């Protein structure tokens, strides 16, 4: 079990809405409460952006990235429908923005915030957004809150404003989530996502048949690059040992991927923790 004790900075809620007009009742009631929290109870700044199509959304996120470079530290709340295969549904234009393209847009914001971005998906099937995680790319968000399947509007209306109120008043976003939205949504932390992605990497490339195939491939590559056409048994033995040592999983794989994936944060686990995760999975 990872223990996360990193600091998190929030100073605004950025509400992204793309719903049919006939479904705006619950949204208006929630945003009225959040506007009151911001204006009358001195909560986080609250901004609402209506997006009608893909370009609207991408332009809004690009502007957020620029503002983040100037100090904005938002929670981005997506108020829209979603599809596990097609991504975020933008109702006015009946267009989808795919999860992959959305992840790339959010990466720019998360880099600008130094891995401090929180995304709340009040969106059916937003769990599938997490499939866009790539070890060689920065994480698109520090925290992601999303449902695995369909989410009831009534639940969101009951729990969204209490979540933001509690998070602002306590300063503890994860505890506020647990007591409210966590009843029907899941919290994904970039450190946990990073650990799981690394464990998949170890299982896929550092064990069993995949490991042997990788070793032989690297062996052949080494011989070709060094113009060794007729290696002696002793040479083969030395090169195989070198290759075997070079791909043996260790702390170095965490150290290699962490600066890119976690941006400005240190990994919250060591290789011993990762090894336990690999063994359990």
* Estimated share of beta-strand residues: 15-25%
Helix-strand sequence: EHEHEEEHEEHHEHHHHH
How is the biggest beta sheet arranged?
8 strands, mixed
Distance from N terminus to C terminus (CA atoms, Å) equals 13 Å
CATH architecture of the largest domain, please?
3-Layer(aba) Sandwich
Classify the helix fraction into a percent range.
Answer: 40-55%
Provide the CATH top-level class of the largest domain: Alpha Beta
Q: Which structural class best describes the helix and strand composition?
A: alpha/beta
Low-confidence stretches: none
Please tell me how large the radius of gyration is.
23 Å
CATH topology of the largest domain: the name is Rossmann fold
The overall pLDDT, averaged over residues, is 90
Describe this structure in words.
This protein is an alpha/beta fold and 281 residues long. It has two domains: 12-194, Rossmann fold; 202-280, no CATH class. Helices cover 50% and strands 15% of the residues. Strands 1, 2, 3, 4, 5, 6, 7 and 8 form an eight-stranded mixed β-sheet that branches. α2 (54-69) packs parallel to α3 (99-112).
């Amino acid at each position: 079990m990872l223990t996360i004790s990193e600091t998190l900075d929030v100073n605004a809620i950025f509400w992204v809405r793309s719903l049919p007009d006939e479904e705006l009742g619950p949204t208006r009631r929630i945003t009225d409460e959040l506007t009151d929290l911001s204006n009358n109870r001195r909560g986080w700044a609250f901004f609402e952006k209506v997006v009608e199509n893909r370009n609207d959304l991408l332009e809004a996120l690009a502007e957020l990235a620029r503002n983040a470079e100037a100090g904005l530290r938002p929670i981005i709340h997506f108020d829209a429908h979603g599809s596990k295969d097609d991504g975020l549904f933008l109702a006015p234009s009946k267009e989808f923005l795919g999860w992959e393209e959305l992840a790339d847009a959010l990466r720019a914001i998360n880099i600008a915030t130094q891995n401090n971005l929180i995304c709340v998906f009040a969106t059916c099937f937003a769990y599938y957004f997490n499939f866009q995680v790539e070890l060689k790319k920065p994480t698109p968000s520090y925290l992601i809150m999303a449902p695995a399947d369909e989410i009831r509007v009534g639940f969101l209306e009951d729990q969204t404003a209490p979540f933001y109120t509690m998070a602002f008043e306590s300063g503890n976003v994860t505890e506020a989530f647990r007591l409210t939205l966590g009843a029907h949504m899941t919290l994904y932390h970039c450190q946990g996502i990073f650990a799981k992605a690394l464990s998949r990497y170890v299982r896929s490339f550092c064990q069993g048949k995949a490991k042997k195939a990788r070793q032989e491939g690297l062996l052949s590559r080494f011989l070709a690059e060094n113009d060794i056409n007729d290696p002696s048994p002793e040479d083969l033995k030395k090169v195989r040992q070198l290759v075997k040592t070079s791909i043996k999983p260790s702390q170095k794989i965490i150290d290699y991927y962490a600066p890119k994936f976690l941006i400005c944060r240190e990994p919250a686990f060591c290789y011993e923790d990762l090894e336990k995760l690999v063994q359990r999975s």
